[in-house]
Give the backbone structure.
Amino acid sequence: MTYKAEVLVDPRRLRGRIDPLIYGQFIEHIGRVIYGGVYDPGSPNSDKKGYRLDVIEAAKALKPSVLRWPGGNFASGYHWRDGIGETRNRPRRRDLAWGAIDDNSFGTEEFLEYCRILGAEPYLNLNMGTGSVDEALRWLEYCNGEEGGIPEVNERMRGPHGEPHGVKYWGLGNEVYGWWQHGHTTAQQYAEQAREWGKLMRWQDSRARLIGVGANDPDWNWTVLKTAGRSIDYLSLHFYWHAKDDAYSSTLAGPPASEQEIITAYGMCLGARKLMGVERPITICVDEWGVWSKTAVQADPSKPSPMEVGFSARSGIDTRFEEPYDLKDALAVASWLHVMWRHPEKVTMATQAQMVNAIAPIHTTKTGLVKHTIWWPLAMAREQAGSHSLILVTRTGAEVEAPGLTGEHLPALDAGGTFDPEKSQVHLSFVNRSRVEECELTIDLMGQPGPMDSTTLWHEDPFAGNTEKEPELIVAKRANIGVPKSMKLILNPHSHTTVTFQV
Ligand code: AHR
């Protein structure tokens, strides 16, 4: 069966500039993200310093513009001093977030060097759980201070880099609205604390840009914004899409549901600025997002969730956050990129959770790595998308079920578009959400296209994914179409397709 759809593309109709910081990644001390993923001393795949070279290569292809560290939940119990100086002198510490023992061999300098290797802006998340504002200000001093004679600056100068690191992005804590967090608190208490911490961080370094903890809860967000609005530049939101009864439809309904949260939260950012006379923008930073069906956790319901009991990943025993990913998950990731492109003034930073091994597009083995299906839409967008968001007008002749979403239905075709004014290049991305119907798509373009490149991510089974045994079962197939004779495309059911061309 086939349904018809049309998309009208006018490269003069732009929504605005897309902030390159939406293409970030998150790495936390959880499971094998850092140890065994990013950093694996002794592995034949690592360099002399311990960085996994195969991970660097796969991560570089994702061009992460910003990298968030050290957590997540881990950040709320992390003391940065444990991770500086000679490695052999660093203390081993118990991490209460995930129940692991961390030898602190990967610390601030190792992280900042990794950012330089990947070409990513560092984003450090402060410990507002067991830490103090003094500790935070000293971390800022250690990273950015220029004034000799201050102990933290001297310490950095004795270290491997010496020069100020110029870290601009600082998180004011993590998910403190949740019982699972060190320092779980109320919106009002957090907001007052964030206002003070943010104020002092800015007094010390006016270049610091601060991210306040938001939630998928308007009440929480409004309290934070109206109390701490003068001290923050971003409101953080986290989105994880879980497969429910109908795994296919519920996963694909995730990103559009998050779109509604973004619209709601951004309205509050505007409201708070007006109320408080704040001229600076306050925008949304989605610093954790991804498909997290907890498949591996659910696979053994007899074991309690790692959130409840901690997670002994450093022993290599419990790897329950190592999600397998399939084609439908990749479709959700592609749709999420469309959401961010549709709201370029609202979402100005995002870091995908996470980069390697735990809920991640890259999975390391002892000898190499597997790129999960979700790696592909990220790589395609970051390689091909333009700097500006295109307004697309679409007409779709079919709908799909969208459990949990207002209206419970979505258009079967989901489209996103960008434009690069310098190259005069259009990039279009399509998710055919229909599991069973192909889509006959007509692109109505104002003008003649140049030669067209396309990519298609598809497999007959939407639940198929890449594994160690079959690492390349699902990869994006590239084609050079030349100057297209017609602007009609046939999109396979449950597929992701991109086209890029000059106008
Ligand atoms: O990304 C895994 C965890 O999920 C993070 O540590 C936490 O912030 C979230 O609950």
Observations:
- Residues 298 and 305 are 8 Å apart (CA to CA).
- The first helix runs from residue 53 to 60.
